[in-house]
Amino acid sequence: MSATIKLEKTDRRDTLVEIEKKYQKYWADNKFFEVDAPTIEEDPEDDADKLREKYPKYFSTMAYPYMNGVLHAGHSFTLSKVEFATGFERMEGKRALFPLGFHCTGMPIKAAADKIKREVEQFGADFAGAPAEDEEEEEPTPVKEAAKSEDPTKFKAKKSKAVAKQGRGKYQFEIMLQLGLSKEEVAAFADPSHWLHFFPALVERDVNNFGGRVDWRRSFVTTPANAYYDAFVRWQINRLKDCGKIKFGERYTIYSEKDGQACLDHDRSSGEGVNPQEYFQPEAQKVFEENNFDLSKNKVFLVAATLRPETMYGQSCCFVSPKINYGVFKAAEGVYYITTERAFKNMSFQKLTPTRGDYTAALHINGSALVGSKISPPLSQLKNLRVLPMETILPNKGTGVVTCVPSDSPDDYITVKDLSNKAEFYKIEKEWVNTEIVPILKTEKFGDKSAEFLCKELKIQSPKDTVQLAKAKEQAYKEGFYSGVMVIGKYSGEKVEDAKPKVKADLIASGEAFVYNEPEGQVVSRSGDECCVSLEDQWYIDYGEESWKNQALECLEHMETFSKETRHGFEGVLDWLKNWALTRTYGLGTKCPWDDSQLIESLSDSTIYMSYYTIARFLHSDYYGSKPGKFSIKPEQMTDEVFDYIFTRREDIKSDIPKQQLEALRREFEYFYPLDARVSGKDLIPNHLTFFIYCHTALFPKKFWPRGVRANGHLMLNNAKMSKSTGNFLTLSQIVEKFGADASRIALADAGDTVEDANFDEANANAAILRLTTLKEWCEEIKATQDTLRTGSKDSFFDKAFDNEMNHLVEQAYEQYSATNYKAALKYGLFDFQTSRDYYRDSVSGAGMHKDLVFKYIENQALLLAPVAPHFAEFLYKDILGKDGSVQNAKFPRASEPVSQGLLDSLEYVKELARAVREAESTVLKSKKGKAEVDASKPANLTLLVSTSFPDWQEQYIDFVRQLFESNSLNDNKLIKEKVGKDMKRAMPFIQFLKQRLVKEDPKTVFNRELTFNEGELVKQVLSNIQKSTTTLKIENLKVVTFPHGEKKGTDITTGEEVEITATGKVVDAAVPGQPGILIKNVE
C-alpha cells in the first residue's frame, strides 16, 4: 500500500520556510508580480509590434482550475511549468504576465451541491444519521477507465479524471471531509454559490505560499457570478454565431437519460474524452420457430455492428457470446432486433426505434441459443452461413453481435481456426464452420489475407493470445485502411479509404444497414447515470468544418508545441474532431444569448478567456466583479460592440465609456496578445486545447493567434498513481507544508518535462531541503570568513578551469531554460554547478579558493536558481551578497567570456586521469594467488606514460569507420570482416569502441582525435593533484614520460631528460593521446 513519507526532523525545512515567508511578504509589499502594459502616456506608439520591440513581454497561462476543491499535486505540476517560464522570462527583461482565474461552469459544482442538499435532508446537518462503513452491504461499483478507441488513428487521453481523483468517500459529505473540511462546514455547500466563494481564496493562498508569480488583480470566477465575464462569454458566443461557427440541428452526443441532457466532458464523473463512435449495422435475418413469435407477421434480425463496412464481402459467419443474455426488441411494426439492452438503449435515443427512450425487451435469449442458426449477411460472397460462438465478445461494445471477416481480422481468423479444430469442445457441428477465406483488399506489406499473414508472423496460436492479437489488429487496420486496395465488389481497384464510405452509402440506400452511435467507452455523469448516445436537436459549434479546420491547421503550423508528440496529437484530433454541443440545461454557466433556457457548457466558455485576463484589472478588483477595477465601468456597459473595439479594432461603436478608457483596454490587450504559451495536461488536447486553437482563429486577427501550447504528462507521486484510498495523495498545500516551497519546486522541476507521465518523488523534495540548507550554511560561512580567501591573480589551472566551467554551465542552463526543459536546467544550474564548486574547492585546498570566483559562484547560483527556487535565490541575492532590489528583477546570467572547449576538455582530462589512477591503484592492490602486486603499507612510485601519437594501424580503421558511417553501413558486418581480415583480434574491439562512441558523441569528435590541449603541459600543471589522487597508497615519487607511440625512449617532462621506457605489454601499447599508461610500484 503506497503512502507518502513522514519527515522525522523538520528544523532544516523550518529554516527554509522562514526565508520563504520573509520574501513572500517582500514581494507582495512591492507588488512585483502586478505586470502592466506600457500606458499610452508612457509611449503613444499605436503599433503593438513596435511597442513590444521597445518593451518585450511574455504572457503564459495554465488551464484555470475547477472550484470544487483545492489544488492537488497534478495542478501543481502544470502550475510549476508556467511559474518557471514566467520567472525566467522576467529575468530576460520581459514584462512577464501570469494570471490565474477560477472555473466554476458546468455540472460538477451543482451536482455536488445537490447531493449535499439531499444528504442533509437524509442524515441531518451534521450527517450523524449516515450509515457507518461496516453497515454497508454492497461495495460501490468501481469507475472504469474509458476503453481504448477502436480507431487506432485517433489521439486519446489515457486516464480519466475520475480514476485520478477516486477516493474512499461514498457520500458527497465524506468527499468534502477528505478536502479537510469539518462536518460543521459541509452543510453550507448545499448552496452552489458557496463553492464559488470558498475555494478561490484557498487557491490564491496556496499558490502564494508556493511562491507563485501570479497577478491576482486579473483573477475572476466564471458564470454570472461575475457579470463582466458573463458579458465576455456572451460576446464570444454571439460572434461565433455571427460568423457561422454555431449551428442548430440534429447531432449525435453523449447523453444522460437521468439528467435529460447532453453530458459533456466536464460534466462527467468518468469517461472524459470519450466521444460517440459510429457503427455500421448490417441486418442479418434469422427466422425463429419458437418463443411465441408469429413469424408470418414478424421479422427478426441479428443486428451486427462493424466499423468496417467495406469488409462485408468476406463474411464467413456471425459471432455471438454464450456469456451474454440478448434481448429481442421491437424496432418497427413487425420488425424485431436481437441485440444487447445497452445497444438498443442507444438506438432508442437515435430515432431508430418506435418510442424514444423505450428499450423494453419483448423477451431475452442467451447467446448459446442462437448458435447454429442460419444467416444470410448482406454482400457476403459465401452462402449457408451460421451463427457461431465467440467468448471474447464484450457486452459493452457494439451490439454483442459481431461479423466474422477472417481475411482481415486477426481475431476472426484465429477464432474460426480454433472453432474448426475444437468443434466438439464448443458443442457445434464442424460443418457449420466455413474456413474458406475470401480476399477483400490487398496491401503491399501483408498481401490479400492480412489476418493469416499477421497471425503466422506473430506466432498467434489461440484466441487467448490477446496481446499479440491486439498488436496484429492495429497493424492490419492501419495498413489496410491507409495502403489497401479493394480486390472485390463494385469498387474493386479503388483505395480502401475511398471505397469505405461508398460501400456504406450503398448498403444504407438499399435498406440493408443503418448508422448507429454509442460511447467509445463507459461514460458516467456527475449524477451517477451511465450515459448513452442520443440524436439531439441542439445548438453546436461546427468544429471540423473544412475552411475553419484549415485555419486551425495554419495556426498549429506556426505554433511552438515543445514536443513532436503534442504536435502529432493536435494533428490527429483536428483530423477527426467534429461538431460539439454548445448548451445544456443543468448546472452553472452563462445563459445562451438567444435562449435563456439553455446554459453555455463548460468547455465552450473557456476557450479564449486568456484575452479576458488582459482587461480584467480595469473592470473589477475582486473575483466577482462586485468591486470596481481601475475604471468605474459597469457590466452593462460592456456590450458586444465594446468587446469588438478592444479585441478586433472595430471603430464604429457607440459607448458611454470614455474614449481614453477604451483605448487603455485595447492597449493592454494588444500589448499582451498573442498568448505566448498555454500549459495544460495532455488529456486536454482532444477537447479544450483544440477548441482554444479553433476559437482564436475564428474571433481574432491572425496576428493574435496563439504562439504556443505545452502539454504535460500526468503526474505520479512516488512512482505510483495518486490515490486517496492508498494514502498516496497530496494537495499543493500539503506539499508546501511538508517540504516548504522551494524544495517542492525543485522536486517538481526534477519530475520531468515530456508528455510522458512525470513523477514527483518526495525523496527528491526531502533531499532538496538538505541541499539548500547545506548551501546556506556554506554561503554564510564564506561571507563571515571572506577576508581569509585568496585574492590577486587567478592564473592557476584550477582557477581558470572553474571560471570557464561556470561560464559553460551558465550557458547550458540558459539554453535549457529557454527550451523549457526544467529538469535539464536544474541539472546544469544546480546539481552540476555545485559539483563544479566542490571539485574546485577540493582541488585548491592547499592554496585556497579565490575570493572573486567564490562570490561569482554564489551570485550565479542565486540567478540560476531564481526561476525554480526564488525564495532561496532571493536570500543569496540579498542576505549573502547584499544586492539592492530583488532577484525577481535581476537579469539571467550569461557567460562572462567565451567558453573555452580546450579548458573544458582539460578539466575533464584531469578528472578522468585521477579516476584512472585510482582504478590502477585498486588493481595492483588486489590479491593474486595470495599476494598483491603492491604492498599498501609501503610508499609507491607512480609513472604516467603519455603517448604523443596514435598507433599507425588505428588510422586506417578510423578512415574505414568514417566511410561506413557516412554511407549508413555501420552494421554491415560482412563488409567489416572483409576489411579486417586476419587483424580481427585488435581491429574488432577498436571498431566496436568507435561505434559505441558514435552513438553518444559528435562524429567530428570521434573522427578528429587531435586533443584540444597540450597533454604534457597540462599534466605538469597538476602534478601535485595527481600525486594525491590515490586513496590508500602514499605516492612518494611521480614521474611523467611523454613518448611517440611505439618508441622505446621518451622525455621526462619534469627534468627534460631522455629516458628509456622499460615497461612492456598493455600498459604501453594501450597508451594513446588523452589516455596515459599508468604504472604503480613500491619504492625499492
TrEMBL record:
Ranges where the Aminoacyl-tRNA synthetase class Ia domain occurs: 51-116, 199-761
Reactions catalysed according to its record: tRNA(Leu) + L-leucine + ATP = L-leucyl-tRNA(Leu) + AMP + diphosphate
Any one GO BP annotation for this protein: leucyl-tRNA aminoacylation
Record's compositionally biased regions (Basic and acidic residues): 141-154
EC number: 6.1.1.4
Region annotation Disordered: where it falls in the sequence: 127-159
UniProt key word Ligase: yes
Keywords in alphabetical order: Aminoacyl-tRNA synthetase, ATP-binding, Ligase, Nucleotide-binding, Protein biosynthesis
Family statement drawn from the similarity comment of this UniProt entry: Belongs to the class-I aminoacyl-tRNA synthetase family.
Name assigned to this protein: leucine--tRNA ligase
